[in-house]
Amino acid sequence: MAASARKVTAMFVSKIPWTVSSKELREHFGKFGKVRMCRLPFDKETGFHKGFCWIQFNKEEELVKTLQEKHMLEGRKINVQRNIGNSFETEKGNYHD
Amino acid sequence: MPFHSARANMAALLRSARLLRISPSGLRHITGTNRTGSTPCLFYSGTPSRTRNGVLSRFIGPALRNGPSSAVWTSPVGCGRSYAVAADEREDASSALLSQQFDLSLTRLDTSVRKTGRITKTLLLSIFHDICKTGYPSGNLALLLLRSCGSLLPEVPLDQRTALAHQVWEKLQGLGVKFDVSHYNALLKVYLQNEFQFSPSDFLDKMGEANVQPNRVTYQRLIAAYCQTGDMEGASTILGFMKTKDLPITEAVFNSLVTGHSRAGDIEGAKNILSVMRTAGLEPSPDTYVSLLSAYAEHGDLDSLKTTMAEAESADCEFTHRDMAQVIHSMVRAGHQQHVPHLVEHFKSSHGSLPDTMNLCLSLVTQGHHDTSFHILKTFCTQADDTLRRDSILLSSLFLKHCVNVDLPLTTIQGYCQELGDTGMHTSALTFALSCALEAKKTDVSMEMMKLMKEQDLPIRPHYFCPLLVQTLKDKNVAGMVEVLKKMQDLGLSPDADMLYTFILPLFPNRNAARKALMDTGVLGDCKAILAVDVPSMAMNNLAELYDLLSDPSSPPVNHNTFRAGLIQGFRGSDDVESMVKLTELIYRDDRFTRPNSDPAETTSYFLYNFFERMTEEEVHQNKDKLRKYLKMLRAQNINIPTNIYRGIKTLLEKYHVPELTKDVMALVDQQEAAAALTDPKVLEQKLVQLKAANKPFGRTLYRTIVVLCEEENLQQALQLKQQHEDQMTAEIYSVLIRACSRHDDHLEVALKLKKEIDQKDPSMVLEASAYLSLVRVLSKDGRVEGALDVLTEMKQKEVVLNKTHSSLFHTLNSLVTKGEAPVIQQLLDTIVTLGLAKPSSSLCAPLVTVYLNRKDLSGALDMAMQCQERYQVFPRVHDVLVGLIENGEKELLQKAIEFATERRGEMNALYDLLFAFLDAGQYKEARKIVETPGLRAKSSRLQWFAEKCIVNNKVEALEQMVDMTSKLFECDRDEMFSYLLRLYGKSNNWEKAEGVWLKMQEDTVIPRERTLRLLADILKANGQEVPFEVPETWYEERSTAEHLKAEPTRSSVEDEAQTKMKQEFSEDTAKFQAHLLSLCRKGKAKEAFEILKQRSGETLSSSCYDQLICGLLSKGKYEDAMEVKDIASSHIPDFSLTNVSNSLLIVTLSKKDLVEDALDLLRSMVQMDMEPSQLSISSLVQAQGRRGDLAAIQEVESLMGSSGINMTFVNNKAMAHTKNGDLDSAVDLLESVCTSPDSNPRLYTAFQRILDVGDDKALDKLSVLTERLANHFSCYRPITDLFVLLLDQGRVDEATFMLNRCPALAEQKDWMFSNITSKALNRGKPTTILHLLNLIPDFTDEEKEKLFTYLMKYHVLEKDLSSAKSVFEQMKAEKVTVNELTLKRLASLYTEAGETPPFTEPPMSYRFYADKLKDKSSSIVELTTEE
């Protein structure tokens, strides 16, 4: 089920300020639905996260609602878009899914 | 060296310069000051002159074809200029590849310079290493690198830049780059920019050694180098040398001399150079002035500086930002920063000036002049308008970053941050500075900054510390890491999950080691985290230990999501089923392992799904026994999973070809549905009293009670309860009450009173949307539109949320239709739209049109619909309007409507509108013409819309017609169309028609989707029919095989090596090929797919692909082809085996071919493999065996299937086999034993039919005796009734009559008779059966007669047999049988269709209405509601 369900319930979030962590992202997107998964990859060289993450909701409606909104975090606009491709999949294999 | 002599030498040299003018060297010397003219370009080409776009691009052109941004290289302080030179001078011999690499590198550097006025050392080094890696750096790349080691690196101290240049030089030389003069010149330029002290003569010697001839540029730069140190003697020597070589003296030389004189302390001499130039016929350029201005700046002579500037400006010399930056730079370098503010005024903030400003600011910081730099920065920012806001922030950011990097004291940085924040130039300066410190891994400063931030109440988060752990991770430095964690602890933070997993755990060989190390230090603080750290590794290594740990009630809660992956891994690898079960049960029952508010049972179910999902097919096969045991034990522990999860797992298991595990999973499905909600108001009221007595909260119960009372229309009691519990009233309860009151117009006042009460009690109370809308409805109905509008406004004010479809709004408006007041509806709709409560949609606007439609005012309706299109861009009820127009023959209006629709909604939409209208109006010929319009393509959403409409309204013919006429429609999804038909037939339980669809699909070679098969199976099952195929089940929604397939090869699973390997082997091309095959199979073109496969039979496809192809071929009866595919599959996949479905299909095929032994063999092996053969395969096989009379074989199948209880398939066919073998007695005994076994009331119709098919009169005799005995001795009447009806069906009326005479009680078995008739709804010969029944059985009650006649009439109507229908009608009248309205309606439709007027009034209401009416009258008559 993973691939298709993720396609409709997952999104790619970018331009995330470095000060924001998964916790804040979960809190923010939690307003739109139950965040089933939040994957915020970190760069092992710099120690900062990479500024993007994947968020997965339980329901497609929640995703659709989220995508319709503009999102600000720490005063900065962040980008949300449907998860395209299967980056979700390829970067699988750690503990947050 | 004496000052004068230098000067004298100079004059001599300058004369030679003048000579140059007439020298025939081919270089034309232009004296004009027009520096942008084309000719000076040529002249200046070899000099480090002011480059302008046109010039530079010309020279860089050859090396940088279409280089997008070469112009930018002009911007940094006095450096980019020489790229042009270099490009011009060097030989271009680079290959295409190298030039590509050059382009790329240049673009990278260029982007950086354009944005930020500089290159970072990191970027430069990264490009440098990239270039070195390729092994063969081209000459121009080498040049590019060297050039970048100067002032483009403002953040790097001067000496380091030079060192870097040397490093690049040596490295490239080592890589075999052959340096030419351009490289030496480039190096010289870098020396100049870096103020590097070197010996020019040594430099020349080196060039000599390398056998590189210095050129004019070399000499000019050497002069500049001497001048930089004020060594005029050295400069003169070179000048003299140039003269002897007859090299032209250019403006650049003069500029250098200005600097030289100044540096030598001779400011007057410097100034004098300008007049010397003029005498030599050269007008001083801005560069000359800049040299002079810099000279004044270095002397701190502000006045002269200003005078000179004014002088230059009056000479039309304009200074660029970069010029000013250079002057300021010189000024600060000489220690005269106090004058900077005077010069900074001349800075104009603009986007173009940003790079220079940045470069200057950064240089100044590098050289220790950070305060001056900050001043310049502030000036830029305060001057900047809003458009430069981002530039300002960028500038401040880079400044701060550099301040951090050069290790300015924290207090200084803090001061800058403060000021930037206060002036609004940078909103989060300190946080940004922290990120810089972290990036630079400056632990101490970072810590100090964070403390500072904490004091300022800025958030500090655990992940801020991650950068500080990068190095400790690399070095595996546990102590260092603990050190950082301790510092975190000091700030009151403990690591978060990201940090743990990415930066802490990888330090340790395993989690246990991590746990031990960290437990001792106590830095993790949070036990939860420790456990989370530990659990995954434990899960992977020792499940029993994990269970011990987790089951300890004192262990803290931990979300099993954090260790799920580990747990799955552990489950996969472990044989400790007991612990697996225990752990599953633990997370199933204990909510410590689930996120708050989620159900552990549900998440555990998902865990099970994931567990199966993560396993590979191979793995599941290997561990079948283990899994079985596990599942069985779960069952024993009463662990239940929801149905949807079961389906998901089942789908997986089928994909893995292990359906035998399905049974065990199914056993886990929770059979007990949730307890039904309490619905008895009495019980509720009692509970209420109890709760109150016990002083417990009773709000929910009160609510529930009032809801139930309102549902039962016991409003009085509900209101009474409300009065008793005024203090408990909530918006929810008020909403319920208002809704209830609004249901009745006469309760309007009560509703309004309630509303008023709320307004007084708590004006902020927000009711449910439906309550407001019910108020709107009753108020509008009562003519109190103003009140209704007020309510709408209130809804808006209180931000009442309406559901997305606005169906409640629609119903509100629609309820006003009956009153026929379009203006009221319009008014409400306008308000709704204006307030923004809802966006206008066609359903929302529909009531407006409905008003007119109800009045049969088609013209008005059309006008209104068109108005809606104009106003709201929706075209409501267009379908009904069009149907009306067609039915009334309003050709002109129809034309108008279609033209309008074409224009506004496009031709395609208009065609569909018209198509559906014709279909609905029964004008199928016209409809067909529309479908045949060239270019029309299937729009599935539109087709779906009409199909759904037909299904809802039981429009059988319209739908059948549509499905039929769209068979050739481009892109029409046939399976979809047939599924609509099935749904419609399913509604009326018309299983014969449904079965007809199945046949039709086979005929049209449409392969049904699983969903379609399920629909068909449901219909057949519901009508007591055997399902002639395997019923598939799917998970959630349809997933097409193609998607499935696509997902499969890309699915990545890190731990799964086998799959990765397969993925690699599975080339994209094969995937495409396979998808193509599957799509052919789905389209019913299995044969075609087979042909293609044969051509590429060398490729290995997935086993499911082979399987589906085999399936497709078998369903076409292509047995031999299917077997060939099987052979191909087996040649690629050694252990290839068919799935359940294909095997079942194979059995069916073999049985039909009468290869009964083979079929039985296959069945045996399926059973051995724990597969479940489909019902159809069993019945086909058993039937074939029965036909042969092979009783033993049937018995073997029966025992193989191990069915419990009585399976009529076996009984029927065994009876048939007996009969076939001439052993009627045994057949009869068998049937008797079936009938007399307890709790059975079997339907023997089929069995009798089979026996009579192969037997003779003797058989009938035996059966008569049997059934009569059963009836007389055992009061078992069903068999005799079955036989009786069978005889009538077969037209053997005499035999039936005898039977009836012998057993008069038969006449009482009307229920069985009806059941026989209804279940065979459309069987041929049935009307005669009914007639016979009516004749033979005298005492049908009127009601029963009505039923029978209704069937009869329905039959004739369906057969479109008007004359028979008429005679039935006559007979009914003669026999005084009530002709119910449904029958009348049907009959009327038959008359109308035949163009006759019915001799009675057609009942006005819909079929559904009368059907419902009949249903109410007699629940046993449900079956009558078929069709309409």
UniProtKB/TrEMBL annotation, chain A:
Any Pfam family from its record, for instance, is RRM_1
Positions of the RRM domain: 9-85
Q: Which Gene3D superfamilies does the UniProt entry name for this protein?
A: 3.30.70.330
Q: Where are the transmembrane segments?
A: none
**GO molecular-function term, one example from the UniProt record:** RNA binding
Q: Does the UniProt entry include the keyword Secreted?
A: no
InterPro entries (UniProt xref): Nucleotide-bd_a/b_plait_sf, RBD_domain_sf, RRM_dom, SLIRP/GR-RBP-like
Mind listing the UniProt keywords for this protein, alphabetically? Answer: RNA-binding
Protein name, please?
SRA stem-loop interacting RNA binding protein
Q: Which organism is it from?
A: Cynoglossus semilaevis (Tongue sole)
